[in-house]
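Why does residue order matter? Because the sequence determines the fold. Keep that principle in mind as you read this record.
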Amino acid sequence: EKTGGFWTDQLNNKDQIAAYHKMAGEIWIQTGGQIDGFVQMVGTAASLRGTGEALRRRNKQVRIVAVEPSESPVLSGGQPGSHKIDGVGAGFVVPLWQESIADQIEQVSTAEAAAMAIRLAREEGLFAGTSTGGNVIAALRLAEQLGP
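Structure:
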């Protein structure tokens, strides 16, 4: 039956990975190639995979960090669980996930992600959601590991 709609099938659609290859190029240009790490909360895994692959082609030493809710750490081999970080942590290993792209998997709790989202709004004027809060938490942790 025709409905006039189009289903993108985000969990299985590999076309989106190529779009993130392009985004990595933009990141590379905007940072002047001065990028030591990239973190991304995992929803479909396309953004982590596409951006990570393309950055790694430019710099084999760049650290790629997957981020997942600590309440549902399935990428780390844990059990699925309930969390409130929107758009990520499906509770199962998503089809586009490729373990080899990530140098590490960082876990961030809903409480940490929500607190950072509030902090970003109050201190930086950035009105972002909990997944952004989780990304910032993981980025700060990675920055501590990498050093100046």
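The helical segments are 15-30, 46-58, 110-124, 130-146.
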